[in-house]
Amino acid sequence: MATPEFILKLREKIGTDELWLPGVTALVRDEAGRILLGQRSDNLLWSLPSGISEPGEPMSLTCTREVLEETGVKIEVTGLIAIHTTAPVTFPNGDRTVFVDHFFDCRPIGGQAVVGDEESVAVGWFDPSDLPEPLSPGVGRGLGQARLYAETGRTQFD
């Protein structure tokens, strides 16, 4: 994915210094309990749909936009599973970023699972007991948080 214009403008001012950005991750489960995953084009790991918020964009809208753009699936956000801050990430160009991720529980309401943009090479629905490899480590963490959210009804913060 091309770097959004607002980030390029910020980078002109701060260079490669650490930049904190609001992000979203979506756990989309269909009626059969399958999970929507995309295989990333940059590292070929299977991951939950995710992305960053545009300035002024509500986080739940970011989530619905990102899932639609990446997977072709229209969703409804049904809950906030967790909010957590990632470890610092250094990109190949030296830019350093920390993401404050908002992890949403979602259900599909339309569309078909297809590769929607250049961020993915494959998209599909998977049974949680039979997930594809190689799998992003974030998927396991997210499924654990989702189980705790389902059991307690409480959003996790860390």
Describe the structure.
A hairpin with a 5-residue loop joins strand 6 (89-90) and strand 7. The relative contact order is 0.24. 25% of the residues lie in helices and 39% in strands. By secondary structure, it is of the alpha+beta class. It has one domain (16-157): Alpha-Beta Complex (Nucleoside Triphosphate Pyrophosphohydrolase), CATH 3.90.79. The strands form two sheets. Strands 1, 4, 5, 6, 7 and 9 form a six-stranded mixed β-sheet that branches. Strands 3-2-8 form a three-stranded antiparallel β-sheet.
Summarize the structure.
This protein is α+β, with helices and mostly antiparallel strands and 158 residues long. The chain contains 3 helices and 9 strands; from the N terminus they run H-E-E-E-E-H-E-E-E-E-H-E.
Mean pLDDT figure: 96
Helical fraction: 10-25%
How many domains make up the 3D coordinates?
1
| Helix vs. strand class | alpha+beta
Q: Note the main sheet.
A: 6 strands, mixed
* Stretches with pLDDT under 50, minimum 5 residues: none
- What general form does the structure show? globular
CATH architecture, by name, is: Alpha-Beta Complex
Report the CATH topology name. Answer: Nucleoside Triphosphate Pyrophosphohydrolase
CATH superfamily: Nucleoside Triphosphate Pyrophosphohydrolase
Using the CA coordinates, give the radius of gyration. Answer: 15 Å
Distinct helical segment count: 3
CATH hierarchy, class: Alpha Beta
Instruction: Work out the strand percent.
Output: 35-45%
- How far is it from the N-terminal to the C-terminal residue, by CA? 28 Å
SSE succession: HEEEEHEEEEHE
According to DSSP, the number of beta strands is 9
